[in-house]
């Protein structure tokens, strides 16, 4: 008696989502989204990754870079704060990344592209935040800007061969940079950066005793809610809802006006506050002393962080800009104050 042989097909609990499947899924994104297959590519051609899209690959390269790791020891607003809960340049970057992904997801855009731009947008920041940036500006024709340095890091100092779209988004993440980002995902990072720093810098100022919550503009408290997650949620919802309605990435006029008023308030009361002037002057001196010291002693710059094709001034600025706050202070104490 013959016995029928049953063919059993075992179905896996998982789906192998190859790069091709991930790229195909991008067809469902919004018309304004940037598709991985449509990337302008890299400066040096590479074989595609079997698993990741080109933007996912860029995200991973940024995450594993030395410049990204150094963000944990770089100032956001307050230099070497004593509390553990103050925002650093690294935690700011992570918050910008979360907000950028939320905006991209809500608008049907390419989330990995927004994520890659956000993760890399601030790696060029020097020690001591914008104060360090101002201290470096006299040494660079046209002024020194962290966005350009972020691009330089991934093109020269830690050449990651990133896609054009990621480099463009990093270049133009700041609202003062022109032309604006070429992609909607880059525009998401612009909004995410401003939403993040206004929200967490206000909380840090309250934590530091620079402000009381009641000092914040009445319009911000009335329209945005309490500083922190309520501000973030209100501004994110504003961008998503108004962009869908307007057909371009934008924030509704009322919320945008409130955000502009809040930003002006923060510059007057926190970023350029008289009570922090002494600290800003002190760390500016540290940056300038380190530049002058290494200009006079170029051989003291480690070979591992030197672009041999550049002039001595560029090499010096690259080195000082790459320092963390802690390293800059310790090196200054050892080399300049001895």
Verbal overview:
The protein has helices at 19-25, 54-63, 66-70, 89-106, 111-120, 129-136, 146-157, 164-171, 184-207, 218-224, 229-246, 253-271, 277-296, 312-321, 325-335. With 338 residues, the protein is mainly α. The chain has one domain (49-335): Hypothetical protein af1432, CATH 1.10.3210. Helix 4 (89-106) runs antiparallel to helix 5. The protein is globular and about 80 Å long.
The helix/strand order is HHHHHHHHHHHHHHH
What is the H level of CATH, i.e. the homologous superfamily?
Hypothetical protein af1432
As an assembly, this protein is: single chain
Total count of strands: 0
> CATH topology, which one?
Hypothetical protein af1432
Mean pLDDT: 93
Helix content: 55-70%
Instruction: Assign an overall shape.
Output: globular
Can you tell me the number of structural domains? 1
The proportion of residues in beta strands is under 5%
**Biggest sheet details:** none
Shape-level CATH architecture: Orthogonal Bundle
CATH class designation:
Mainly Alpha
The class by helix and strand makeup works out as mainly alpha
Low-confidence stretches: none
What is the count of helical runs? 15
Our Rg estimate from Cα atoms comes to 23 Å
